[in-house]
Amino acid sequence: IIRNFNVCFSHGNKEVFSCRGIKLAVDWFLERGHKDVTVFVPAWRKEQSRPDALITDQEILRKLEKEKILVFTPSRRVQGRRVVCYDDRFIVKLAFESDGIIVSNDNYRDLANEKPEWKKFIDERLLMYSFVNDKFMPPDDPLGRHGPSLDNFLRKKPIVPEHKKQPCPYGKKCTYGHKCKYYHPERGNQPQRSVADELRAMSR
Q1: Which residues of 183-199 are buried (b: 16+ CB within 10 A; e: fewer)?
Q2: Do 3 and 102 form a contact (C-beta atoms < 8 A)?
Q3: What is the crossing angle of helices 4-11 and 19-31, to 10°?
Q4: By C-alpha distance, which of 168, 138, 135 is closest to 151?
């Protein structure tokens, strides 16, 4: 799930809402074989560019909408005042429910404080990035040097290398079952639930 505001203003040097930034980010994921890419953009961004809200390459928004990649979040005018929905909530909710990742340089503190399962998800599934001219560049170590590689991070179910798994101190006597955070070699390669599945189960 790509956060349009971050991406567009990063590419537009924080001065212009550059729709080309969205396309560069989307193309990066599509070229890597990711098919389920969603961009949220407030509907008012369809309006004509103004000096106080500069926007470039708006035709890209329409094209991505036709390709079912971009979704406009609702907005309307009430007595001359623009009323907009909080698009960050759309982003976090969809990413959590679809076990995806969030592409943003924001840390969503307000939403992380709303629900503990959202906080854990945001901590573990947020992908930061930079633009170097027209090159979209996420880090090779999205969660720091001791975290997963970028390729592993982008998996729905990241693989933890055997040598990095810490054996459970209780061994076969462990009573935590699949909730145990330690490695149990005696259980073999039983499928582990994804981060989002675990959080949903805990919140029930």
Answers
A1: ebeeeeeeeeeebbebb
A2: yes
A3: 110
A4: 138
Q: Architecture of 2-154 per CATH?
A: 3-Layer(aba) Sandwich (3.40)
Q: Give me the pLDDT at residue 131, please.
A: 92
Q: Which two tokens stand for residue 78?
A: 């009430």
pLDDT greater than 90 at residue 66: yes
Domain locations along the chain: 2-154, 171-203
Rg (the chain; Cα; Å)? 20
Strand partners, 167: 183
For residue 66, give every residue at least 6 positions away whose Cβ sits within 8 Å of its Cβ, in sequence order, or none.
Answer: none
pLDDT over 80 at 118, yes or no: yes
pLDDT tens digits along 149-175? 999 999 887 676 654 567 788 888 888
Q: What is the pLDDT of residues 3-21, one digit of tens each?
A: 766 787 777 667 788 899 9
Question: Given 3-state DSSP classes, what are the helix, strand and coil percentages for the chain, each rounded to the nearest 5?
Answer: 40, 20, 40
pLDDT classification of 138: cutoffs 50, 70, 90: very high
171 Rama class: left (phi>0) / alpha (psi -120 to 50) / beta = left
